[in-house]
Request: fold
Amino acid sequence: MAEPSAILPLLAVVYGSGWVVPASVGVLLLAALAAVCWLRPYWPLRVFLWFVTHSIYWLRVLGRPNIPTKGAALLVCNHVSYVDWLLLMASQRRFIRFVVWAGFTKTWGLRRVLQWGGCIPIDGGGGPRAVVKSLRAASDALARGELVCIFAEGRFTQTGLMLPFHRGFEQIVKKCQAPIIPVCLDQVWGSIFSYYSGKIFWKIPLEIPYHVTVAFGEPMPNDTKAADVRQAVQKLSADCSIARSKQRVPVHRQFVRIAKRSFFRPCFSDSTLKDQELTYGRTLAAVLCLTREMRPLLGEAPMVGVWLPSSMGAAVTNIVLAILGKTSVNLNYTSAPDAVQSALRQCGCTTVLTSKRFMARLKLEPGPGVTLLYLEDFREKISKSKRARAWLMALLTPTFALERWVLGLSRHTIKDLATIIFSSGSTGEPKGVMLTHGNIAANAESLIQAAGLEARDRLLGVLPLFHSFGYTVTLWAPLQLGASVIYHADPRQAKEIGELCKTYRCTLFVSTATFLRFCLRKCEPDDFKTLRILMCGAEKLPQALAQEFQKKFGVLPLEGYGCTELSPVAAANIPDKVINDFRQIMNKPGTVGQPVPGVAARVVDPDTRQTLPVGAEGLLLIHGANVMQGYLGQPELTAQVVHDGWYVTGDMAKIDDDGFITLTGRLSRFAKIGGEMAPLEKIEEVLNEVLGTTERVAAVTCVPDEARGERLVVLYLEQPLAQLGFDVPKWWQAVNGRGLPNLWVPGQRDFYPVAEMPLLGSGKLDLKGLKDRALELAVNAKRS
Reply:
């Protein structure tokens, strides 16, 4: 064979000198490249993918060692966009044979690319034989030791949430020993090739390069059920969210960036100041002024108390504290003075920010050594000229200069504490929950994706900021994308809330079942007609209440789930979405929804903590970047509820094949009677159901009993019971006829009337107060 150095002289002799030789070499190279592309098209495609994933996309791969270097494996992946298979192909070196929808092969250009990639087309509309043929082809590929990948959802997600997994892939691995490897595509939702914003293509890229992650999970046995594989993919989603924590920025830093981009968009409105609306620019200017005034007065103390209702003032105050590097402690003004003083002592707060107007309504007794600073005093110090200069600075200063040099935000990290929220104390003494900027940012990101929040949305904020739903959902989440919030201080004032929603044409409302009952009685039918989503949390949403609300207002309340320790949103029902005549089911009445993106859930045995199969009832655990840092000053208690990144909720639940969570009770809301467990929530539900009302007339708890360990006690509202045409004997008879086990039926002597139910500031039933009151009544009854 001729040496390469002899080729050029040979060509020179044949063709002469000049440009002919290099041109001939170029032709030969192009011919060789064309031959390679034709004979081995997979490798040029990989070169192209390498270029794409290092320019347009920026690809990160997790768990690559979980892919065997040789031998068969079935990859089961979520389906987010048109380019999912290309991203997977670029994520590792082995050849992957994809099972894809046959409709793609009908487009000439795409058909050729799919053929190059060795894809196996499958057509559900072609009948059972066509499907079986495709599945057999995939199984044969596994038998040859190849990697096969299937998108088990069968189509793209339209919301960013996973669809149910079809069970067809179970047949592919049924006859071979190939392991199943769960795969998660993270952050692909939002790219121009996904259904983000309701359409494919023709979208402006959110960023270039666009960061995406491919995560490979640990191999699973070949007989693993589809629902269990789906849970494994959901867990990978949570792992990805944790892994990219460093990519996030503190929530107040994101606010500054959004404020610069949305300078003239509305940001905050307030029912107490109806003629005043803060744009993002004015809000940023107010933050600049207050930052300068507050800095010397707050000193070096890391935590600052806030005694303010849900309002523009409270929102701006929390932003200012975050920018100053302080941890805000929004105090619960519905708590007893001792509880408030305890919170201040635990946090070491020496300063509380409040207003004279609010203090006149609800006076704070902070205890010794605590200084009160009033917002009205700061307002008086800020002249019109100072406001004008701050507004011009906010408008004209480049974002990077504003962040780094004016506000000094470059030293702030997502690991910094954003807030301490004291838990409601429904089952015990309040505890300080430490939430970082990373917790809040991750949860806001999950909520925005799940609910499809956009800058044009208007949120109705009535939950107080000492409530985790109020703090994350109605303060920081809208500020992360440029949406606006309308605040009202008292969630019980239903008439005013309805008028606000109608006036400002709100699109999202977060509330509780208790407060919805007020709206049902006092609001007009067209008050909530502009709402796109009405989300309820903190307590169980009775389906009768939801249906009655929908009948009157035309909007269906949807139940979500979370708690302070989870920043707080963990799962949610959202409205079904229809695109191209396909409805993606996102709401199952009676459940609390499925985990939001970046969050995983599983059910374990309460005693052994072994993971239970899908559909079994057990203790609910939650995993994700939203899990709290811990309890303030209580590392032992933190260790009891957080294990390997999983938070033990204390709720009993079951998860169905589609990932929807049904709460069945609270682990602590069981009575142990004669060695048997009686679910208090179930009994409470029956007690209220037989009355035929959506109101909470009865609540159930338990007290010690010498003979059987514990016994059930019912507290009820006497006047509503009489208005419904019941007395205790008639009521008890109706409950007894519902087929409950005898141990679950309270004795008639254990029904006690009360003037009102003990409630927390969120409207949630105060379980500790309920138990204390029941014990007091039971002791008094025994004495008499």
User: Anything to note?
Assistant: Residues 235 and 600 are 5 Å apart (CA to CA).
